[in-house]
Every structure is written in structure tokens, then in C-alpha cells.
Amino acid sequence: xxxxxxxxxxxxxxxxxxxxxxxxxxxxxxxxxxxxxxxxxxxxxxxxxxxxxxxxxxxxxxxxxxxxxxxxxxxxxxxxxxxxxxxxxxxxxxxxxxxxxxxxxxxxxxxxxxxxxxxxxxxxxxxxxxxxxxxxxxxxxxxxxxxxxxxxxxxxx
Length: 157
What we know:
Elements: H1 4-12, H2 17-24, H3 28-36, H4 58-70, H5 79-90, H6 96-118, E1 129-135, E2 143-149
Antiparallel strand pairs: 1-2
């Protein structure tokens, strides 16, 4: 195979694509490809998305973890207990570490979803305001009102 750098060198010297193809013995398409290429490093092979051995059992595992949310904290499944139930009840041929990773992913996804659901967006449109009521000095006789406007005439266009 012709050296890629020699094609680029001949191009920089002013040879036409057809001349470079004749000199190097490659097709014009190859000359065009190497002429326009910036990075000559080989591309890593694309990883195929492989299914897990636990994919058929994932809905079952999620149902067990859903049931755990309704039971006491001490009664919940550990990853080891999930593995034992999969092997004994379903005859699954999976390792403990695979089950641990699956349970960890499910719990992390659920905690992230729960964290997103806990917070409200504190965005007010122009003209809207919020008010904070606080009691000064520990007595309830005096109330201070604090209003913060999100838009004022000074900043309006």
C-alpha cells in the first residue's frame, strides 16, 4: 500500500490527482480520501451494544425493588439476596457482580429521578413576585415583609 504521506506530499508539490494516482498506483478515490484527511490515526472499533444476561430478568428485579419500597428498611433486598432469588426461583446463570451492577444502576436511576422530582423550578415571570414572611426578634408581634420583584422599570428595554 502506498504511504499516505507521500500522496499528501505530491499534492503539496502541485501534482494533480490523476498524476498522483498514476505515480502511486492507487485509484483517484484513494488519492482524494488521503488528500482531504486530517487525522491519520486509526479509528477505534465501534462497540456493539451487547445485551446483558440479566435483561430477561430486569423487570422481575425492578418489581422486587418496587415491593421493597413498601416494606421496612431492614426487610429490603440486597444485591446478594436478589442473586440468590434469581438462581433459586428462576434458574438464572449469572454472577453476583453482574447482579450487583444491575441493582446499583437501578437504584442510582431511581434516586436521580427522585431528586429531580423533589425540587421546583424557582422561575417567576415579569411582574410576578414572591414574598417571604419572617418574624423579627423571636416575637410574633412584628412582621417584616420582603418582596423581591423579578423585573423593574430600570432594567426594562
